[in-house]
Structures are given as structure tokens and as C-alpha cells.
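Reading a protein record of the kind used here takes only a little practice. An example makes this concrete, so a full record is given next.
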Amino acid sequence: MSARTAKCVSEGYALCDPNGRLAPLSFRGTRTESITALFALEDWAGKESEGWSAEIVYARIFTPKFFVDVIPEEKAVA
């Protein structure tokens, strides 16, 4: 049996601007949390009329792997 890396996917909401781009740092677990990450809840109706939307998104969470840039044999010589 081979070792497998666990894949973790998280579902949540992110704000989408009028040009169709997801707003950075707006990913949250609920729609309300996503909206209040960037705007006051009272201002949301106006932002929706300008073209903003809260979209369901999926984020893949992974552990980064770092690679050694110096081979151990070369490090001993250096």
C-alpha cells in the first residue's frame, strides 16, 4: 500500500466584483461573514446593485513542500 497525501477541500463564500474577479481575503464560511469582510452589511444592497455578488467557492487546502536547494554532499564541501 502506498502513502497518499490527504486532499482537503473547504467550501465557503467569496465576494465577486462587477468585473467577475474574486475579491482577495473575502473567503469565509458563510455568506454574511464574506460580505462583512469587506463591506458593512447595511451597504450590501447598494453594492449588489453595482454588480457585486457573493459566490460559493471551493478552496483546496494543502501543506506546502519545500525543497532543499543545496545537495548535502555539496554543503559538506562548501
